């Protein structure tokens, strides 16, 4: 009986995970087109193939669903691992050369932007008119700023920042350069390759923050 209960519990957990994923996938499509404001939760439920009560049970509200979608889209998964604890951060911190650190981050950035550009642009657009979306967009901007302040501190620890830059001003530069709208303009609209975007990011940020190469 114990084995059976464990099996049933594992099965329920897997079903709950799949249901949550289906709802998030539906939201990722419909919040982009026709858009957040134009998409009722009933439409999300229908596309996900679940009852509307299930959507409310899993997420509680439309705003909470949008917030969860942004978090999952940025992270790339639904695992309870904070971004500062993820592998790409450890990879960056294992490096001692600031340009190499920027190069590793650029790789992560291009991968992340390719995954999240549609959702984040939809969120930015919705934030101009919807208070709930605006609050989530503001939260996203604040989290970006916190992450880039951490990155700026790691770069400063190498002792290679240009003398006119503090951690705060370096974080400003990093925060601006990593904006998803840069990726949208250069890659999606102008046809750059992700590799060209990465080179642009590294060259631009290094030219601003680091002394000229010897």
UniProtKB/TrEMBL annotation:
The keyword Transcription regulation applies. SUPFAM superfamilies: Homeodomain-like, Tetracyclin repressor-like, C-terminal domain. Residues 40-59 bind DNA. Keywords: DNA-binding, Transcription, Transcription regulation. PROSITE patterns: HTH_TETR_2. Pfam families: TetR_N. Gene3D superfamilies: Tetracycline Repressor, domain 2 (1.10.357.10). Transmembrane segments: none annotated. InterPro entries: Homeodomain-like_sf (IPR009057), HTH-type_TetR-like_transc_reg (IPR050109), HTH_TetR (IPR001647), Tet_transcr_reg_TetR-rel_C_sf (IPR036271). The keyword Transferase does not apply. Residues 17-77 form the HTH tetR-type domain. This is TetR/AcrR family transcriptional regulator. It comes from Dactylosporangium cerinum.
